[in-house]
Design brief:
It is a single chain. The protein is α+β, with helices and mostly antiparallel strands. It is 34% helix and 13% strand. The termini are far apart.
């Protein structure tokens, strides 16, 4: 008979493999700060975005409490938390990985048609796609998709299936911000489509067509932050499809038309495209 590991035993196994862990209470939430650290009295930052100069031995400050030290994990200060822990979380950035949290079937389908396959873990409502490499974390980068890496925690749901591959530009582009206006192209400048002579990933025309269709859909479904959505979509399309020269005027026109239907001007579309190329070194 196989006996299920307790959260504490799971945490110790992970820590031995170099994965920083912390306990989660019911509701998938970290344990609150102890009385000494309440209201960040110890010097911790608001909202637990960065660890403060805190020597408290409690599992305080959310993701910043994650550790691989078995002496801390099994210390009396953490004992109560483990007794009440519902599950184990880990700090993806501390483990050197990025988790693309896909929260529903539509998000999973988007990933399968847009992102390179990697190690996949099944969740309650969707999947975690895990890539080797770190980046800033960000929630709601598109419908049903969160990025969990630096300064964030994720639930441990098992090793999953498949091999972990390097973090692709298409994922980094999801949280990229548009460069300052100083890099914008002159008004009316032609959009450059020339690739960088990279290896062509388009084994069939359908692969490129799907990428453009997903980009158009992402822009069309935007309900807020349209400027940022247009730029991130252009960045994602270029990072995946723009280095080999297969993009044509027709493809770009589809993206620009979708953006202008959401209220963007032709000038902003050209600027966003040029800024995306600059960000990718194209």
């Amino acid at each position: 008979m196989t006996t299920a590991l307790t959260p504490l035993h799971t945490a110790l196994h992970l820590a031995a493999d170099g994965v920083p862990v912390l306990p989660l209470r019911r509701g998938k939430l970290p344990f609150g700060n102890c009385p000494t650290c309440a209201h960040n009295a110890c010097g911790g930052r608001p909202n637990m975005k960065t660890p403060g100069p805190c020597t408290c031995p409690q599992p305080c400050h959310g993701w910043a409490a994650a550790t691989t030290d078995p002496h801390v994990i099994t210390s009396p200060a953490w004992a109560s938390a483990w007794r009440h822990a519902a599950t184990v979380a880990y700090h993806p950035g501390g483990a050197g990985v990025t988790v693309v949290d896909l929260d529903d079937p539509a998000a999973v389908q988007w990933a399968r048609t847009t992102l390179p396959a990697t190690r996949t873990v099944t969740t309650t409502r969707g999947e975690h796609w895990i890539y080797q490499g770190t980046m800033p974390s960000s929630n709601a980068v598109r419908p049903g998709v969160d990025i969990k890496s630096l300064m964030q925690y994720a639930r441990w749901l098992g090793n999953g299936a498949g091999a972990t591959v390097p973090l692709p530009d298409a994922v980094r582009a999801l949280v990229a911000k548009e460069p300052p206006a100083a890099r914008r192209a002159p008004h009316g400048a032609a959009v450059s489509l020339r690739g960088n002579g990279g290896e062509c990933p388009h084994r069939t025309p359908a692969y490129l067509d799907r990428g453009i269709t997903m980009g158009v859909q992402r822009i069309t479904e935007a309900r807020s932050a349209v400027h940022a959505t247009v730029y991130r979509t252009f960045l994602a399309v270029l990072s995946t499809h723009g280095r080999c020269g297969c993009l044509t005027d027709a493809h770009v026109t589809r993206l620009f038309t979708a953006a202008q239907a959401k209220g963007e001007t032709a000038r902003h579309c050209t600027d966003a495209w040029t800024n995306a190329r600059t960000a990718l070194g194209m």
